[in-house]
Amino acid sequence: QLRLVESGGGLVQPGGSLRLSCTVSGFTLDDYSIGWFRQAPGKEREGVICTTARESVTNYADSVKGRFAMSRDKTENTVYLEMGSLKPEDAGVYYCAALSARYWCSTSEARRYNYWGQGTQVTVSS
After folding, report:
1. Rounded CA gap, 22 and 117, in Å?
2. What pLDDT, on the 0 to 100 scale, is given for residue 94?
3. In the predicted model, what is the mean pLDDT of residues 34-43?
4. CA distance linking residue 11 with residue 55, whole number of Å
5. What's the pLDDT tens digit per position in 50-82?
6. DSSP label at 107?
7. CA distances from 86 to 53, 73, 81, 118 (A)
8. Nearest CA among 90, 80, 74 for reference residue 27
C-alpha cells in the first residue's frame, strides 16, 4: 500500500523558516517524482516545487524560487521541503504527492500525481 505522510507544519513568523517532511512507504523514491502543493482557504491548490525521481530536475513555482528547496533522504524514505523567508501568503495546507514518472515532474499538473498525503498546516503570522 502506497502511503505518504506529511509532518513538520506549524506556526512561523514572517521571514522565518520551516522544514516539512514527507515520509513514504510502499514504494521506492527512485521510481517516483515527488511534488509539494499547497492550498490556502478559499483558494485553489497550487504547485510549489517538485523534483524528479533521481533529483536531476527540480521545478519551482515563481513565487518560491530562491526561498524553497527540496531534498531526499532515501535511507529514511523521506522527502523534505525546506522553506525560508516565509511570507503570510505561503500559509496553507501543504501536501506532498508522488508521480509515477522518473524523469518528469510538474508543479502545474496536480492531476497527474498518483498518490497524495493528508497534508500539514503551515501558518505564517506574527
Report:
1. 8
2. 98
3. 96
4. 29
5. 999 888 889 999 999 999 999 999 899 999 999
6. S
7. 27, 24, 13, 22
8. 74
Are the C-beta atoms of 1 and 114 separated by less than 8 Å?
no
DSSP type of residue 108: S
Letter for the amino acid at 72?
A: R
- Residue keyed to cell 533529483: 55
What's the grid cell of residue 97? Answer: 504527492
pLDDT digits (tens, 9 = 90+) for 87-122: 999 999 999 999 999 999 999 999 999 999 999 999
Q: Is 49 exposed, middle or buried (0-12, 13-18, 19+ CB in 10 A)?
A: buried
Q: Mapped to the 3 state alphabet, what secondary structure does 37-77 carry?
A: EEECCCCCCEEEEEECCCCCCEEECHHHCCCEEEEEECCCC
Res 54: pLDDT: 82
Q: What is the identity of the amino acid at 36?
A: W
Q: How far apart are CA 37 and CA 61, in angstroms?
A: 10
- The arithmetic mean of pLDDT across residues 1-15, rounded, is 97
Residue with cell 530562491: 66
Residue recorded with cell 524528479: 52
